[in-house]
Every structure is written in structure tokens, then in C-alpha cells.
Amino acid sequence: MSSSTKPPSIGPTLRSVPERRYEPVSGTWVVIAADRASRPHDIRTAADSPELESCAFCAGREDETTPAVATWAPLSSSSGEPWQVRIVPNLYPAFIDPSETLPLEFAESKSSKSGQPSRGYHDVVIESPRHVRRLTDLSQEECHLVFQAYRERLRQYATDPEIKVGLIFKNCGSSAGMSREHIHSQMVGLPFVPTTLQTELDRSQAHYSKFGTCLFCDLLEQEREQGERVVEETEQLIAYCPFASRFAFEIWILPKKHLFSFEDLANDSLSELSELMQRLLEKLEKQLGEPSFNYLIHTSPFDSHRKDHYHWHIEIIPRLSQLAGLELGSGIHINSVPPEAAAALLR
Fold first, then answer.
1. Torsion angle of the four alpha carbons 94, 204, 209, 302, in this order, in degrees rounded to the nearest 10
2. Which of 154, 170, 190 is the last residue of a domain?
3. Domain at 130, CATH number
4. What is the pLDDT of residues 264-275, one digit of tens each?
5. Domain identity same for 61 and 144
6. Catalytic site residues?
7. What number of other Cβ atoms are within 10 A of residue 133's Cβ?
8. Which SS3 state, helix, strand or coil, does residue 65 take?
């Protein structure tokens, strides 16, 4: 891997500055990022050609992306590829580099408003030089390198004192928000803890204060004892469909050992995790026919304090239906597939 020691500047001048706004009724943050409406959309139908000549993520078109902030070499010198994994700043970011100087007109025009610049890092992880679409298209070694890239970039985020937490996510398929089909995921480094993660931290802290145990560890043991929602176990990991799954075929992956920080994982743990991820996605593809899905990696904020109450984890969320009025109006998720049935089909 080659990389800078500090997360570097995003480079090109933005046409507009993403703005972070607080919504006090729900207690959530909203980012207004007009430039993201200009993102390319190259999703094809199955009848189209398997190659896309205009793909900026393919090897040989590196000048069509922002300059890479980290690059991993090919696994084999005989592959003929110039790289295996690249991380580049998002060309249409929701968050702009903390070191960027804001345009004067932005500061003047926002002086009387409650909004503030949406600072942070927003990266794209290009997971292969080849024009493939899904994690199951990669070899085990290639997939392992992707998860190494996640870990190393999180460690870089942690060196910036302005950045509080990192989030890793993949949008696969048009229903999951994917705008380019070439295999990739995204990472953000944020100067604040977002509402979803803060809620997890608060609730796990309350559980720890009351019982003296980690909420996630207790849920993990409960699932192992009952067994009916467990999809697969490895030496270090467990994958299961949660008891109160919000989405059909939703899967959570947790380390069996209490670990609060994803970036602390050793290489052997990353290898085991990447292989498990590929198997789980293969199971979903077999049962659901290459569904759109998101996966999210939640890890502890970057600080020097141990998080005995928190547990890093991955959520895999197939996008088989859309949120409708009941879900949007009440916050209650309606899941039409019991997690016990989903787990039985996936085993």
C-alpha cells in the first residue's frame, strides 16, 4: 500500500459547498449537497454489453477521478494491472475536506443562517481495476485487500483531530443508491457522531450501566443459544438475522470477542471476515437473485477511551421493498419475512 500519512485535501474546487443543518424535532443532521445531483448514473440492464467504455473507475482511466489518497498494488506482478485497490476523494462529496478554504461568498451568505459547512472526508474505495459489479466477483485475496483498505483508511482518519468517527458503506444495485456499477464502496470521516451511531452508543451505555455487560455481547449469546436465527458461525465471527429485523433477510455480523474498534482488527481476522462476507452475499444472491443491498460498518468513535459498552458490527440490508407512508410517518419498519424463516433459507 502507498498512502499519505494524513488524509489529504480533496483537490478540485467545488461548485457549491455542502451544508450541514440540524433538525431539532427528530434530533438529526441533514446535509444539503446540491452538487450530488450531478453524479453520473451508469447502471445498465442485463441486456447491455458487459463492459462500459466510459467507466472512470476502470484501470487506465485514473486521470478521470480525483487523485488517489491510497493505492494497493496488484496481488500478482503477472496480472498486468497497475493497481488492485484505489481510494479517491468523492468527486461529488457530501462532506468537504476540513483543510479546504471556503469561498468568501459562502461565509458571507451564511452569516445569518443556522447552517454550517459540511466538513469531513468523503472517499470512494474502488475495489478492483476490472469492470466487475459485486463482491462475489472478486477472489478471496482481492476481497481481503478491500477490507484491509477500509482498516487503513480509518486509521488515517483517526490521525486528524477534527474527525470524530468513520463510517464505511456499500450501495450495490440501483435500489440501494448505487450510481456507478463498477465495484466500489464509500467511506466518510465525520467531525461529529451521527444520530444513528450516537443512539447505539447511548443505548449500549445505558445497558452497560444497568447490567455491567455489553448489549451486543448479550444479544450475540442469546442468538447462539437459540440458534434459529443464526446463519453462519466461524471461529471469530457470527452472522445472524436479528430478532427484530427491520428488513427482509437483514443480516448482522459481530465478532464473538468483545471488540469496539474495526480498525484494530488483525490481518487474520480481516481475512476471516472478508471470506464470510462473500459467502453471505452468495447466499443472498442464490435465494434472491442478485438483490440490491447496502452494507454498513459501525465502529466506535476515534478517542482514547475504551468502549466496554460498544461492539463494532456490520449490517447487511437487502433492498427488496421501499419505505412507504407508515414507515416514514411512524418510524416503524414493516418486515414481511420473519428472521427465523430468512435464516433457515440462508443456512
1. -40
2. 190
3. 3.30.428.10
4. 999 999 999 999
5. yes
6. 184
7. 19
8. coil
